[in-house]
């Protein structure tokens, strides 16, 4: 062989050797990969294969029902069917939706909306297409499920609120899970509490998911179901609410805007918590229309606001009870004396007027509460000073949230008095106006009801309780002498019992004796002149005074405390008093007392007393 031939052969052999090494390396890698798949990852692939063969369908739990203290349903479950779809198990979503549209008689707009919902949802989670369906609605779909892979018809329940708007703010409502709920592990097909008790006790009401194991073919079509883990039903909640009392308050309030709060004076249990107008919670179950939501949002009566805890109003003359207690506790001289009411008090060049233009003559603490004399409380507030009024208000629970679980809750407003450099200077007139519940001070109806309960039970300030049978949750025990409380209680009793009392005409004939205080909160300021202008016109409805009544019953052995406000209702005695009377009647009836006392023939109801505050 020539040298050139030997060189060519050597190159060939080297290339062949390199090729052999390369082939050997490939075979080695193939063997390693085969070993990895066959031995090391065997269990993982087997599990994946099982997952492809086995479909785990979540079973939604039945939400716990909510009932009142007597077992009457407030939030119930009605039997229905849900239609769902798991996107990752559907090869052609458009085709499936087209078939469902024909079977369910959906509009094109509804189908497009569902397509958007599917796009926004996770591929491995069921998407709710329709709920609250009856069997006739889904029978055709159920019969064709073998042609609709990924689609399922599930028997379940939907929420129903028998009392609708009358309990909407207290009970709340449920709606489909949102993005933040899904991120927290809740299925997009599940319902979540949004307001009121539904939201506050979501963890108790929700229950736990169950599951059904199904064998499916390569196309995701169900072959058989072989295992079922039942869901755990949510807890049934028994509230302290008496829905008959709630209804009585609602009927008495009628179409007017306002709120009613009723508490057990010994336990703090909420017996009624009404805010009107309410909203229809059943509208949320299948998805609220945008038009309806905008209608509620833009409604000048604000039906979405829970007025019992979220709206704060000037307390008007109901605040005189707080000022009276503060004066008695502080040993204010006027609290044990009397003063002359000529219908006004002079403050510099101004005149601060009493509601009764011709005055109340000689007035002591008792008479000032019974007839709601403003002049007396102007002077009493001036003696006390803003700091003492503010401190007493905070002690009795104003200016702070009550702690009811269904917030958010307004704390109201109590003027805070500070000292030192930069502290605000409180003028004499501001203190006087605050003493009659006007000016900067505001309270919620629930705060006022809690205050009435503390007066009735001897000075125990309670946190409102929504669940029946719970022990009293004491916020604090207020240090007040029994004789001081009795002085105020006696006057509150005569607000109702005396013919001169401002609530005698509306509350004086009840079978359960009651005690209370009226209030008329100004919405707009009124002139303090002796004579009204000749061109003076009646105020528009939205500018008329708010009407208050707060109190407790029975007087001898207190059971309930209440606060009523009627927005733009006028006078407390004539507008709010009858609503409170309806509450007391309902409670008395529940105790088997259904008659009313008869007024004495010589009893004369004085117009000034009945309409003054």
Helix and strand layout, with pairings?
Elements (H helix, E strand, L loop, with lengths): L2 H38 L1 H12 E6 L6 E2 L5 E13 L7 H12 L3 H13 L6 E7 L1 H9 L7 E10 L7 H4 L2 E3 L2 H5 L7 E3 L2 H5 L1 H4 L4 E7 L5 E8 L7 E2 L4 H11 L4 E7 L5 E7 L13 H9 L20 H12 L7 E4 L2 E4 L2 E4 L7 E4 H6 L3 H11 L1 H10 L32 H8 L9 H13 L2 E3 L11 E4 L4 H16 L6 H4 L7 E7 L24 E8 L6 E7 L5 H19 L16 H5 L2
Parallel strand pairs: 2-10
Antiparallel strand pairs: 1-8, 2-3, 3-4, 3-5, 6-7, 8-9, 11-12, 11-21, 13-16, 14-15, 17-18, 19-20, 20-21
Helix pairs in contact: 10-20, 12-14, 12-15, 12-18, 14-16
Q: What would you say this structure looks like, in words?
A:
The C terminus is likely disordered. The chain contains 21 helices and 21 strands. Strands 2, 3, 4, 5 and 10 form a five-stranded mixed β-sheet that branches. It has a five-stranded antiparallel β-sheet with strand order 12-11-21-20-19, sandwiched between helices. It is α+β, with helices and mostly antiparallel strands and about 625 residues long.
Percent in strands? 15-25%
Q: What is the top-level CATH class of the largest domain?
A: Alpha Beta
By helix and strand content, what is the structural category? alpha+beta
Helix share bin: 25-40%
Assigned CATH superfamily of the largest domain = DD-peptidase/beta-lactamase superfamily
- CATH topology tier name of the largest domain: Beta-lactamase
Low-confidence stretches: 528-535, 598-611
Distance between the termini: 132 Å
Global mean pLDDT: 87
Total DSSP E strands: 21
**Dominant shape:** elongated
* Number of H- or I-type helical stretches: 21
Main sheet specs: 5 strands, mixed
Total of domains? 2
CA radius of gyration is: 36 Å
- CATH architecture identity of the largest domain: 3-Layer(aba) Sandwich
């Amino acid at each position: 062989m020539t040298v050139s031939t030997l060189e060519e052969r050597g190159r060939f052999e080297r290339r062949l050797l390199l090729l052999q090494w390369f082939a050997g390396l490939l075979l080695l890698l193939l063997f390693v990969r085969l070993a990895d798949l066959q031995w090391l990852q065997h269990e993982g692939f087997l599990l994946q294969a099982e997952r492809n063969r086995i479909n785990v369908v979540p079973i939604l739990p039945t939400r716990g029902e909510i009932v009142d203290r007597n077992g009457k349903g407030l939030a119930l479950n009605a039997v229905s069917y849900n239609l769902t779809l798991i996107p990752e198990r559907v090869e052609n979503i458009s085709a499936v939706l087209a078939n469902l549209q024909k079977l369910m008689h959906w509009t094109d707009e509804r189908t497009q909306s569902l397509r958007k919902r599917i796009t926004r949802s996770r591929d491995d989670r069921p998407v709710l297409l329709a709920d609250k369906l009856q069997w006739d609605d889904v029978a055709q779909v159920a019969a064709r499920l073998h042609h609709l892979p990924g689609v399922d018809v599930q028997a379940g329940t939907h929420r129903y609120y028998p009392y609708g708007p009358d309990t909407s703010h207290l009970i709340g409502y449920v709606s489909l899970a949102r993005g933040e709920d899904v991120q927290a592990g809740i299925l997009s097909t599940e319902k979540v509490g949004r307001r009121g008790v539904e939201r506050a006790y979501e963890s108790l009401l929700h229950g736990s998911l169950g599951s059904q194991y199904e064998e499916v073919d390569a196309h995701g079509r169900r072959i058989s179901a072989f295992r079922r883990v039942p869901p755990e039903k949510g807890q049934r909640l028994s509230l302290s609410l008496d829905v008959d009392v709630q209804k009585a308050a609602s009927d008495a309030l009628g179409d007017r805007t306002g709120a009613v709060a009723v508490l057990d004076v010994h336990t703090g249990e909420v017996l009624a918590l009404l805010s009107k107008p309410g909203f229809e919670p059943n509208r949320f179950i299948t998805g609220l229309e945008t038009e309806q939501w905008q209608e509620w949002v833009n409604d000048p009566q604000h039906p979405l606001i829970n007025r019992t805890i979220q709206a704060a109003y000037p307390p008007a003359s109901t605040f005189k009870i707080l000022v009276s207690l503060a004066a008695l506790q502080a040993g204010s001289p006027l609290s044990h004396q009397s003063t002359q009411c000529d219908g006004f008090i002079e403050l510099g060049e101004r005149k601060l007027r009493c509601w009764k233009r011709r005055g109340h003559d000689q007035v002591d603490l008792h008479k000032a509460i019974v007839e709601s004399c403003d002049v007396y409380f102007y002077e009493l507030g001036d003696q006390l000073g803003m700091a003492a009024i503010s401190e007493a208000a905070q002690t009795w629970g104003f200016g702070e949230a009550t702690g009811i679980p269904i917030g958010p809750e307004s704390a109201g407003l109590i003027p805070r008095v500070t000292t030192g450099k930069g502290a605000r200077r409180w003028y004499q007139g501001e203190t006087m106006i605050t003493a009659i519940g006007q000016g900067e001070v505001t309270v919620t109806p629930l705060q006022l009801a809690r205050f009435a309960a503390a007066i009735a039970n001897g000075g125990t300030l309670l946190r409102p309780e929504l669940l029946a049978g719970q022990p009293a949750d004491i916020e604090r025990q207020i240090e007040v002498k029994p004789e001081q409380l009795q002085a105020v209680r006696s006057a509150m009793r005569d607000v109702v019992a005396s013919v001169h009392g401002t609530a005698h005409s509306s509350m004086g004939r009840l079978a359960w004796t009651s005690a209370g205080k009226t209030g008329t909160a100004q919405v707009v300021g009124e002139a303090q002149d002796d004579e009204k202008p000749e061109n003076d016109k009646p105020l528009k409805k939205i500018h008329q005074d708010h009407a208050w009544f707060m109190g407790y019953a029975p007087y001898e052995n207190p059971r309930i405390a209440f606060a009523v406000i009627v927005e733009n209702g006028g006078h407390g005695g004539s507008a709010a008093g009858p609503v409170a009377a309806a509450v007391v009647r309902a409670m008395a009836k529940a105790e088997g007392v259904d008659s009313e006392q008869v007024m004495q023939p010589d009893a004369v109801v004085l117009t000034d007393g009945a309409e003054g505050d």
